[in-house]
Amino acid sequence: MNLKLHKPLCTFDLETTGVQVSKDRIVEIAILKVHPDGSRESRSWRVNPEMPIPPDSTAVHGISDADVADAPTFKEIAPKVVEMLRGSDLAGYNCNRFDIPLLAEELLRAGHDFDLGNHKTVDVQTIFHKKEPRDLSAAYRLYVGKNLENAHSAEADTHATFEILDAMMNHYEDLSNEVHHLHELSYYKKFADLAG
């Protein structure tokens, strides 16, 4: 193990009914607890959210109402979750903006105080975004396999952008090469009324 742990680290992930922290509920939770000696324990639970799972959410995680109809509620499993997290630091992917706030809400609803002051948190997505450049030069290296010369010159950036888009057609098998499909995939809906 490359990590140096001074206390256990609980890496966890949630599948939910949606993305609104105060409104949505957990339908699945998994926790991997890694101890400083490298030993691991893992638990996962399907959870009855006590509300319908929207079809859009089921399309993301594959969990339907029928899959959790006989599962325990979060309140029923909360003591086991709290026990597993006790004395541990926390890690997840996008956990600081989503998983931790939603888990805290669920624990409070279940009557358990979730004091983040007792846990250090590691958001793997944040580290990834800080350590891996996500600019035009990085995209050019990834998709075209060359270093971008004259970056931030409008002409060089324009040619590089086209080469990246063209190379993406070979990189992603499921990516359509039709502009109208690419438009649907990349269109930023706030552009709809730029004129005011």
How would you sum up this structure in a few lines?
The protein is an alpha/beta fold and 196 residues long. The protein has helices at residues 55-61, 65-68, 74-85, 95-109, 124-131, 136-144, 154-171, 179-186; strands at 9-16, 26-34, 40-46, 89-92, 121-123.
Radius of gyration: 22 Å
The residue ranges in which pLDDT falls below 50 over 5 or more consecutive positions are 191-196
Secondary-structure element series: EEEHHHEHEHHHH
Number of domains: 2
Which percent range fits the helix content? 40-55%
Beta content comes to 15-25%
Structural class: alpha/beta
Tell me the total number of β-strands: 5
Assembly state (oligomeric): single chain
- Characterize the largest beta sheet: strand count, sense, and whether it forms a barrel: 5 strands, mixed
- Shape category: globular
CATH superfamily caption of the largest domain: Ribonuclease H-like superfamily/Ribonuclease H
CATH fold name of the largest domain, please? Nucleotidyltransferase, domain 5
Give the strand order, joined by hyphens, for the main sheet: 3-2-1-4-5
Q: What is the CATH C-level name of the largest domain?
A: Alpha Beta
SS summary, helix count:
8
Kindly report the average pLDDT value: 91
State the end-to-end CA separation.
55 Å
Question: How would you portray this structure in words?
Answer:
The protein has 196 residues and is an alpha/beta fold. It has two domains: 122 residues, 2-Layer Sandwich (Nucleotidyltransferase, domain 5); 58 residues, no CATH class. The protein contains eight helices and five strands, in the order E-E-E-H-H-H-E-H-E-H-H-H-H. Strands 3-2-1-4-5 form a five-stranded mixed sheet. Strand 2 and strand 3 form a beta hairpin. Helix 6 packs across helix 7. The longest helix is centred in the C-terminal third of the chain and has 18 residues.
